[in-house]
Amino acid sequence: MSEGNVYLCAWRRRGDEYEIFLLENPSLREQGSDLDELRISLCERIVLWNGDGEALLEMAPPITEDLAEGCRLYSELSYNNKVKIFNSGSLYAGGYCQKCRFAIGPRSESEIEIDKKPKSPVVGVGGILPVLEIYSAAFVDLLAQHAEHDIQFRDVLCKGKKSGYVEAISGCEVGHVGMVGAEYPESFSRSWRCTECGHVEFSVYVENMGGLSRFVSEESFHHGYPPAFLLNSGRFLSIAVRADVWAKMQTDKRARGVASESVIVLQKEFVEMPMSLPEPDEFDWIL
Ligand SMILES: [Zn+2]
Question: How many angstroms separate the alpha carbon of residue 200 from the centre of ligand 1?
C-alpha cells in the first residue's frame, strides 16, 4: 500500500464526545473528547491495517462546531503529489528575487509547462515559489457545479499540449492574516521577511486552537462569504472552499484523494499582522 493517502472520515458528536470512523472501513473508529488524539489513534490503526504510515484524514463534512460564534470556516485544498515545472523563468513579469527566490510582480501570459501528466484532482507544482496548485478539468467542473466563484483558470501544458489540468490565476487573491494574541514561530524559518524584495511568510500559532492555524479577515470579503476564493498564504497559492460547499464536494469521485486544511475567517477586531519578522541568515533552505 502506498503512503500518504487521503482517508475520508465520517464523524458524530454526542455531548463532548466525538466518534470518528473511516468511510471505507467503518471498523476503524475511535471515540473520545480530544479530536487531535482521535486523529492520532486512527492513524495508528491505519498503519496496522494497510501499512500507510502517512495517512491524511479528511473529515466529511468539515467539523465546524467548535468555531467561535460569528467565525466561518473554509477548507484550503491541499495535495499529496507534485509535478515539476519546466518553464519557471518566464512565468512572472519581475522574475525572481535573487535572495529569497520568490516570484516578483504579476503572473505573465505564459502557460505553465509540467514534466508529466498528473493523476490526482489537485496537484502541487514544484520548482517555483510561490508553490502553485493545478486542478483537473473534472475537479474544476465539480467546483463550478457547487460554487459560483470568480476564480479564473488557465490551461497547463504537458509536452506542448493541453494537459487536462488548469492553474488558478492570481490577481484577486486573498492574503492570510495573523490573530491578536497569536505567536509567529520563527523556528525552521516559518516566519520571516526578505529585506531584498519585501516578501513575507508567516505561520500563526494559537495555543487554545491546538497549534498552527490559518486565518483570513472578514474584511477581505465585500459581498458576503464567497463559496470559494484563491488564498495566498505567502508560500502557497491555493483554492479555499467554504466548509458547507466542500461538504457537498468531498465525497464526489472527482475530488477523490483531495485533502484540506482549515482556514478560519476572523472578525476584524481579532485581526492583526505580524510586524517585525526577522530575515533568516541564509535562504538556502527554501527550495
Ligand atoms: Zn526576496
Answer: 8
Give the Å distances, CA to CA, from 280 to 30, 185, 198: 42, 13, 13
Distance (Å) from CA 130 to ligand 1 centroid: 11
Distance from residue 171's CA to the centre of ligand 1 (Å): 19
CA 228 – CA 13 distance, rounded (Å)? 27
Q: What angle do CA 194, 200, 206 make, to 5 degrees?
A: 135
Instruction: List beta partners, residue 193.
Output: 200
> pLDDT per residue over 54-84, tens digit each?
999 999 999 887 777 767 899 999 988 889 9
Proportion of the chain above pLDDT 70, given as a percent: 97
CB 287 within 8 A of CB 125: no
User: Residue 214 to residues 99, 182, 203, 237, 260: CA-CA distances in angstroms?
Assistant: 26, 11, 8, 13, 12
